[in-house]
Amino acid sequence: MSQIAVNTERCKTCGVCIELCPRGVYVATQEGYPAPAHEEKCTKCQLCELWCPDYAIEIEVEEDGA
Ligand code: SF4
Ligand code: SF4
């Protein structure tokens, strides 16, 4: 199950998330959308989610003791 959700209706294909992900998780699709091609490398640092100017990314993080 994917823990990275990219909302392509919000995404403006700026490429910021692809550039800043320290793990190289994203690969740009032909249209320029970020595809989490290497999701297994994701550390859930949430940088992409925080920096996306269009709030198009959601990283599912498990909550402890909630
Ligand atoms: S949460 Fe961090 S490691 Fe995962 S895709 Fe986003 S920037 Fe990359
Ligand atoms: S940072 Fe946001 S708007 Fe820019 S390419 Fe990534 S998901 Fe799309």
Describe the protein's topology:
Layout: E1 4-6, H1 16-20, E2 27-28, E3 34-35, H2 47-51, E4 57-59
Antiparallel strand pairs: 1-4, 2-3
Task: Describe what this molecule looks like in 3D.
It contains 2 helices and 4 strands. Strands 1-4 form a two-stranded antiparallel sheet. Strand 2 and strand 3 (34-35) form a beta hairpin. By secondary structure, it is an alpha+beta fold. It has one domain (4-59): Alpha-Beta Plaits (2-Layer Sandwich). The model has no long low-confidence stretch (mean pLDDT 94). The chain has helices at residues 16-20, 47-51; strands at 4-6, 27-28, 34-35, 57-59. One iron/sulfur cluster (SF4) binds next to helix 1. One iron/sulfur cluster binds at residues 6, 11-17, 34, 52-54, 56-57.
Helix content: 10-25%
CATH-defined fold name: Alpha-Beta Plaits
| CATH arch. level architecture | 2-Layer Sandwich
CATH class: Alpha Beta
Write down the secondary-structure element order.
EHEEHE
Tertiary shape:
globular
Give the oligomeric state of the chains in this entry, treating copies of one chain as homo and distinct chains as hetero. Answer: single chain
Describe the strand arrangement of the main beta sheet, using strand numbers.
Answer: 1-4
Radius of gyration: 11 Å
Uncertain segments are: none
Number of helices: 2
Q: What structural class should be given to the helix and strand makeup?
A: alpha+beta
Q: Could you write a compact summary of the structure shown?
A:
The protein has 66 residues and is an alpha+beta fold. It contains two helices and four strands, in the order βαββαβ. Strand 2 and strand 3 form a beta hairpin.
